[in-house]
Amino acid sequence: MGALIAANDLVKAFPASRSLRDMMRGQRPVLRAVNGVSLEVAAGRALGIVGESGCGKTTTARLLLRLEEATSGSVLFEGQNVSALRGAALLPFRSRVQLVFQNPFDALNPRFTIRRSLAEPLRNFGVPPDQQEARIREAMGRVRLDPPEAYLDRHPHELSGGQLQRVVLARALVTHPRAIIADEPVSMLDVSVRAGVLNVLRRARDELQLAAIYISHDLALIRYVCEAVAVMYLGRIVESGPTAEVIAAPAHPYTRALVAAVPVPRVDQDRGDLPIRGGLPDQLNQPSGCAFRDRCPLAFARCAEEAPPLRAIAPGRHAACHLA
Amino acid sequence: MPGASAVARRPVLPGFVRATLGFLRRQPFAVAGLAIYLLFIVTAIFADQIATHDPREILFRGAYRVARYLPPSTTHYLGTTAGGRDVFSQLVHGSRSALQVGVTAAFFVVVIGTLLGLLSGYLGGWVDRVIMRIADIILGLPFLPFVLVISALTRPGTTTLVASVALMLWPNTARVIRSQVLSLRERGWVEAARVTGCSTWRIIFVHIAPQVAPLAALYGSIAVGWAILTEASASFLGFGDPAAISWGLMLQDAFANQALSRGVWSWFVPPGLCIVALVLAGFLVSRGSEKLLFPKLGD
Amino acid sequence: MDALLDVRDLAVHYRTAAGPVRAVDGASFTVPAAGIVGLVGESGCGKSTLGRALMGVLPRAASIAAGSAVFEGRDLVTLAPAERRKLLWRRLAFVPQTAMNALDPVQRLSAQMQEVLVERGGLSRAAAGTRAAALFAMVGLEAGRLRDWPHQFSGGMRQRASIALALALNPALLIADEPVTALDVIVQRQILDVMRDLQARLGLAMILVTHDVAVVAYACDRVVVMYAGRVVESGPVRAVLEAPLHPYTMGLMNAFPDLERAGGELVPIEGAPPSLLNPPGGCRFAARCPFAEARCAQDPALVEHAPDHQVACWRAPEAPALRPLASEAATWAR
């Protein structure tokens, strides 16, 4: 099955602040938040992008949504390159690819009623007013906010976090999208309501055959909602493959550390030392060769000389490590 | 969904009216400010009925003796001027020009300042740079001298005054609105508006503008005070509309006739007090509106 | 059991225009002299307020309305503020959620260490310097970094520094409010390892306030589960997490995505916690509880159901039968 949405060698470079020395040398350092990311998701499938803060996963999502312009590379939607679309030409793409926000308390206009928040996208995408109410009710049903009348005339501050996040998802679904991107969809929610929101997300994806991309730092959550996962480190994908396989047998040393660090609600669990050293390096002064080598317990001479490319290591699995 | 029952129990729409009433009880200063405004507005509307004389009419005492410097009495509540005009009637009619200048100037300050602040903050880039550099230049100009120069170069009058006050005061509003917009554009729901296909103009005027409206209103009520003070100052210094009746002109008239050294308190104290009261009312209301118009949404 | 801290029926109220909000409403638990106690619950359950009340760092609008908190034989609730201040740092120390709140952004870390060690601890400047270096080593930071400013540290390093600062005067009890919530998993694990290691080496007691059952499972020896201002279950981590007695604890365990558990639906706890302005009578969890009965309209007391394992639920004796039901989504869906 072909990809519904795909990223092709996306790069996003931000100008970094210059030190006095840089200025004297006439240098203008750039920070590559995303450094050559390629991925694809088919309809009805879900891909998780996992990594620590600063790894570029949120920037990747924003590039895919065309909320930010890529420095190079392209975004393909239904086989069409959408990177060059501007203004009104971008509208069809916008109606087809929607975003679920991290912070439900900030994702809805506080002065709009829920109904108006849901009607706004429909208006923007030219849905006739007499069809809007039906679409709104359909979306509210999909996120299990029953009956819709209990919510539609309220303002965001009258709803709880879990209800708000369902409304945010309803706003994304109301445009009948083909793909949905969820950036840490439950990290701001209380533990007891997270499961409800994740279930609703998963069900919507199955019923509507959406292509879904989840951005999260939480591997356990990715495991629950995504069949495939891509692990990012310093702007690059270092490992990808079916989630269960990657977690069961990580090929990249960074993934191994990440899996080992995830806390599980079990009393008997491995409390050994993490197979990783130090903290994230300064993005502007990354080591030569493999970006992970100064934290890697397995690093050897070759890691300093050449950066390992992301290559296939088994059917459906890729890793960027000389040892994989 | 069991959450629904919890929601349904809450009363539907707390009622803006009830919230306002509760606010008024808690904000005596704002109430005082509003009361002062109301008093002056009523006075201005019914000036013809309230005034005991024509404010421009030169009054005579007996045959051909101008009724100058009459002390306060039941006929002339605040006495008469050196020109034999009724002070009370001038005071009452003066409220018209004061409010007229204050409100129109504040209107333009708010409209220009908000519009440019919105564009500058949301669009950024060269639009932002151009608008903010112009604002910097205007903020660098001395306020009153500049107004006086404009008045001197053009036909002195209310229009000139209002225009120059608006021209001089919009940068303050624009800067504050801009900084508010800069933080608002980072909010999730503004991003959501982009993702759900809103045009830039719709984001600015439908989503963001209502959020900055309270701030604009705040700066508007401050501008009312500034405009009235400016009008009074300009009139006092002789740059006002000579044909108008205003508190500033009354003060100038009194000053020119040495009312102070003659001790004619009833002539120059009332207009001074009126200016202070109206400017004060503007500040009281703006302090109060801060709390009324920034409800804690999402609390 | 010889308790270092014995909290009895503690109530903390926030004054609001609408009346008192009972953020903590009769919480009871004990903290043994050594070990890490996890204080776990959802936002608004009163766990942070409780931690802050014990430290005497409540916000202005909040005050302790009732109960006692006996720490080393003295009741923190009735202790005069001056006496209580003497205890801070020396016997009781605090690590706030964001390390930036514990660290002064305009002072080098060495100066902040010196201030605590010299002004409060009465050490000489030289001794304080040695001690500061030792403290930094203890939390895994190089002594050379004492010369740095807080902004030069990463999030994890700041949290290490604020733990070092809290431990400066050898307190008997360390209260940490969500110390790893804002951190990435790898850093989170490293900080939890530091805390476990320090607890074992120094033999002190810690209260770790968190919303994350997994953090409790990894780092804590005992756990206190709070719901709507009350303690609903407490005991050793193994007993409570492996055989929870309270339906809320069962729900919390099942609501978490588990890296090691494949497939299946997550089980949400439907509904939301009650308002603490006018909390309902009886069991506070009854409105969301799939096992609620008529008698749940009466308040269940926190009683010792198994050795050292307290629970406030009428149906605790049936817990073994309820547990398998609680792991099915259909039970909770209504």
UniProtKB/TrEMBL annotation, chain A:
Q: Which GO terms describe its molecular function?
A: ATP binding
Topology relative to the membrane: Peripheral membrane protein
- Outline the extent of the ABC transporter domain: 5-259
Subcellular location field: Cell inner membrane
Q: Which Pfam families match?
A: ABC_tran, oligo_HPY
Q: Does the keyword Transferase apply?
A: no
Supply the alphabetized keyword list. ATP-binding, Nucleotide-binding, Transport
Where would you say this protein principally sits, based on its record? membrane
Q: Which family does it belong to?
A: Belongs to the ABC transporter superfamily.
Q: What is this protein called?
A: ABC transporter ATP-binding protein
UniProtKB/TrEMBL annotation, chain C:
Entries under Gene3D superfamilies matching the protein = P-loop containing nucleotide triphosphate hydrolases
Ranges in a coiled coil? none
The segment(s) forming the ABC transporter domain are: 7-253
Q: How does it sit in the membrane?
A: Peripheral membrane protein
Superkingdom classification of source: Bacteria
Entry's localization field: Cell inner membrane
- Provide the alphabetized UniProt keywords: ATP-binding, Cell membrane, Membrane, Nucleotide-binding, Transport
UniProt lists the family membership as follows: Belongs to the ABC transporter superfamily.
Read off the PANTHER family from this record. Answer: DIPEPTIDE TRANSPORT ATP-BINDING PROTEIN DPPD, OLIGOPEPTIDE TRANSPORT ATP-BINDING PROTEIN APPD
What is the name listed in the Swiss-Prot or TrEMBL entry for this protein? ABC transporter ATP-binding protein
Taxonomy, top ranks, is: Bacteria, Pseudomonadati, Pseudomonadota, Alphaproteobacteria, Acetobacterales
